[in-house]
Amino acid sequence: MRVYRDDQKFLSFRINAVLWGIVAVFLFLAGSFWFVQGVQADKYRGLSEANALREIVMPAKRGLVLDRTGQKILADNQPAYTLTLDRTVMRPLVKGDPQHREKLIAFLAAVLGVTPQEVEARFEKGKLIPFARPMPLAEDLTMTQVASVQAQAVAFPELNVEPVQRRNYPYGTMAAHVLGFIGEVNEKDLGVHKDLRQGDLIGKRAVELMYDEYLRGRDGAQYWEYDSHGRRLAEYRPARKEPVAGDNVYLTIDFELQRRAEQYFIENEFVGSAVALDPRNGEVLAMVSSPVFNPNVYSKRFTPEVWKVISSNPFKVELNRAIQGLYSPGSVFKVVMAMAGLSDHAIDTATTFHCAGSGVFFGRRFRCWRRQGHGDVGVSTAIKVSCDIFFYNTGARLGVDKISEYARNLTFGEISKIDLDGEKAGLVPSTKWANEKQHRKWYPSETISVSIGQGPLIVTPLQVANMMAAIANGGTVYRPHVLKMIEKVGPKGEVNRYQVASEVLHKVPNLSDRALQTVKAGLWKVVNEEGGTGGNSRITGLNVAGKTGTVQVVAQHGWVKAEGMPFRERDHAWFASYAPGAPGDVPKMVVVVFVEHGGHGGADAAPLAKLLYESKFRGQVQNANFDLSNPETLQAIKEGEAPVPGQKPKAPPVPAGTGH
Amino acid sequence: MLRERTRNLSNVDLNFLGTALVIAAIGCMLIYSATYFSDPSLSFVRRQLLWMAIGIALMLVFLVIDYHVLFDVAPILYGIGLALLVYLAIFGRQTAHMKGWIHIGGSQFQPSEFTKVFTALMLAKFFDSNERAYLSLRSFIQVMLIIGAPVTLILLQPDFGTAASFFPLLAVAMFFGGIRWRVWVVMILVALLVAGLGWGVMKSYQKERILTFLDSNRDPLGKGYQVTQAKIAIGSGGIHGKGFRNGTQGKLGFIPARHTDFIFSVLGEEWGFIGVMIVLGLYLFLIVQALTFAKHARDRGGTFLVICLISFFIFHVLINVSMQIGVLPTTGIPLPLLSYGGSSTMMFLIAIGLMLNVDMRRFVNE
Questions:
Q1: Could you tell me where the beta strands, DSSP code E, fall in A553-612?
Q2: Is there a contact between A135 and A129 (Cβ–Cβ < 8 Å)?
Q3: How far apart are CA A514 and CA A342, in angstroms?
Q4: What residues of A are in contact with residue B299 (Cβ under 8 Å)?
Q5: Suppose A90 and one of A158, A222, A260, A319 were both cysteines; which one would form an S-S bond, judging by CB atoms 3.0 to 4.6 Å apart?
Q6: C-beta atoms of B221 and A238 within 8 A
């Protein structure tokens, strides 16, 4: 039963009118759909198959890598041409002409100058890339190759020449171990970075890897309509995504220091490493590992043969010896011994031991490096002349576990947490280590070897530099780093810069001020007093302080001259230093030089330290005869022909007045 | 009281409710088919299911409470809706030059969708107390103010698409409220005056947006392109369609907004003419049912409430389906219960609840 309403009739009428109106519209729509889906279905089906909106990636410009001043560009991008294959275009062509594929391969082999098998191999490799995406076939096309491909555009419309930005390292081998290199993503990278796709390039090593997130930027994309013949029609603009360029990365590397240090190794054909640190904040001013490699070679895709050459190099070119090379510290470790002995009161400044050239400890005879002995020596003289007997005694008093404790506090046995990949921790032995890792007893006589930096103790050059920095700055361990600043450039050119703050990892505990002053005085004498082992790094007017080290590679019986030994059996040479290092100075730079099989620390390693201090503090160096400002040399290095040890470099002309 | 409520609930028109839910279920399948390729985590489908669950809960709330009670609180709900729009107009975050979204935690919602329901309630309440077959000028102005307030606030965002979707309320008010020819003349004059003044003060990008809204050919590679692609998708589906998940146009990303405004093209491509007819049939059934509810409603308020609400359905379905095959220009108007979208799904489910509410209380002797 309903309530009677006046308006009932009026509303009912209009509702019915609407109802029939809607039914009519629905019928009209049904008819329209019938027309589109029934009558014209074939036409649209054809369009659907042919009509394709294809994505064309607009690669982001990878960020630059610059030195600390921003004046030297260490890594940039160069325009280059990549040859790609569009398989969506190729498929119908192969269907239409069974010989098309063969013709294409023959054409490619001819243009690229490779075998047809190599072209097939590249096709095979490209299968990992999604079908609709262009598949790269060759990089760095010459203009002749570009012209050849474009001349055959009608016969092979599936080939495209795409302008790309190729990673370029203008100084070739310069700082290669710090810069790293880029390469194609692998399965592991794809698992970590969801936004990447097969065929993309990514940082693989060192700064390129560590700061890839900043450097990479974000790729953009264009969407193009294609007709059934694979011809590009028009870009579908609204879908366009502009690429976002990567951020620029400024390193702490001082171009001049890096250049000189590398030059020193190249010139002398040394294998080894050098590290320059700022002890006030942990900035890495230079980091050299020799021999060097040319990262430009790695940033190409199709060079497996180059890999073979590089990986078979007996000098392990890729190894960054500064952080991955593990060596006995030798006499450089005496700095730690002196700090430990004094701080732990095993010895004091008045303690003297008599050195007669050798001594018996725990039933075994141990020699001093100086056959005739040093006589009575106190701690600072022991450092100056690097007397082994003094430190054997100190080590015997401390015991290996005390030594181990101080060595760990002074940065050994742990990674330094530098912002580079693959850093090695080294090893600081202790009785616990012998028991747990070696399942054996620690022999007290081993402690004697460790006291002069031999035995199971192994360290990296960076750890030595870090230790010297902690001594130089009075006991602060900074996190060493190569990143100085990230520079973000916005789409409208606005620049934001983010400086890296220095990070204190820890303060060295139990470090007495007196011990520190005594050791620093000893280190100063090493360089600046007659009879010190580091006289080769002496600079008038600048108080360099440091410690030499010579590491026996092969157990020697008796005293043998280095020059008379085969290369592989020669001693390693160390020089660890800082400056200015007179009492009361605030040291501004630590330099550690390590030369594999170099012979003597004082003779082979110290001169480089001198060179670097001269460069940093005076801005003029007299003995640089391998000049990178020489265009010929620079070109040689750019082309990857930088001299490697064991192979005489082309002698560049010596600028008048700079010889020595 | 309890017995009454259970008896009421037994009066719920299950055909109507069932039709709505079947449309929503088809919508989920289509959203899945449109997005699984580009979004393997299925986040769109999951979110749509979540909104449907919330929407069904809200639907039950608006079903159980007697619509007369809702008429009593209508001014409050309407006030809240307007307050949210004012808030947005002043503080709203700019999402793609539009302030229409309020951010709650991680998700967003569009208050304008809910304001549509509240405005419909307000309008129905007005007609409930206005028993005359023809509106007086005074009543007409009141109606215009009820509809005009939210529309003005939405235009300030500025969101012309949503503002336009209030148009069915205007049509209902004029067609079912009854307007004499003198009022028509006054209204047209006022409309022209407002449009002229508005055009003068508008910024050029706003003008461009209106022109594009009215004529998609102004942006041929934009919306025109969308229609072309949608038409290719639908046409290539043929009679039987390419099969569930087998559509290529949608999957390969040729159709922008394929899970929202162009979900119907996915239906046409994958389910063919047959699928299109089934879904259009379901909509038609829903509309015919609702108009029957309107005729049989217990009072004038109930009739107007149902008409207002179903008018949204009619408007959205006709505009959206027509634009798929290029009969009408492209606008950002989603398909009720079929398109992806939280606020609109919830709004349409609430509307379903309210229409059932009116229908199940059609008997007087409660």
A1: 572-579, 589-596
A2: yes
A3: 8
A4: 3, 5
A5: A158
A6: yes
Of B232, B287, B322, the CB nearest to A44: B232
pTM for the predicted model, two decimal places: 0.60
- Give Cβ neighbours of residue B278 (< 8 Å, ≥ 6 apart): B271
Q: Report angle CA A60, A65, A71 to the nearest 5 degrees.
A: 125
- Interface touch A1/B277, C-beta < 8 Å: no
Residue of A48, A194, A224 to mutate, interface with B, max B Cβ within 10 Å = A48
Instruction: Sort A24 into a burial class: Cβ within 10 Å, 0-12 / 13-18 / 19+.
Output: exposed
Supply A566's token pair.
Answer: 């085969």
Strands A248-251, A65-66: pairing is parallel
Q: Retrieve residue A349's tokens.
A: 């400044």
Whether the predicted interface score ipTM is above 0.90: no
Q: Which of A25, A40, A52 sits opposite B235 (nearest CB)?
A: A40
Q: Is A221 on the interface with B (CB under 8 A)?
A: no
Which helix or strand (DSSP H or E) is residue A499 part of? strand A495-499
Tell me if B280 and A29 make a contact (CB, 8 A cut-off).
Answer: yes
Separation in Å, CA of A92 to nearest CA in chain B: 18
- Alpha helices (runs of H) in A499-605, residue ranges in sequence order: 513-528
Using one digit for the tens of pLDDT, what is the confidence trace for B275-324?
999 999 999 999 999 999 999 888 889 999 999 999 999 999 999 999 88
pLDDT band at B253 (very low <50, low <70, confident <90, very high): low
Distance CA A297, CA A172 (A): 9
Q: Tell me what pLDDT residue B106 has.
A: 42
Pull the structure tokens for residue A28.
Answer: 């009209």
Strand A201-203 relative to strand A220-226, pairing: unpaired
**A461 in Cβ contact with A274 (< 8 Å):** yes
Q: What are the DSSP calls for A52-119, one per residue?
A: EEEEEEEPPPPPPEE-TTSSSEEEEEEEEEEEEE-HHHHHHHHHH-TTHHHHHHHHHHHHHTS-HHHH
Q: How many C-beta atoms surround the C-beta of residue A540 within 10 A?
A: 6
Q: Does B268 touch chain A (CB under 8 A)?
A: yes
Residue B226: is its pLDDT beyond 50? yes
Spatial contact of B296 and B263, defined as CB atoms under 8 Å apart:
no
Paired tokens of A585: 């100075």
Q: What DSSP designation does A557 have?
A: S
Distance from the B179 Cα atom to the nearest Cα atom in chain A, whole angstroms: 13
Q: Give the Cα separation of A45 and A38 in Å (integer).
A: 11
Helix (H, G, I), strand (E, B) or coil at B219: coil
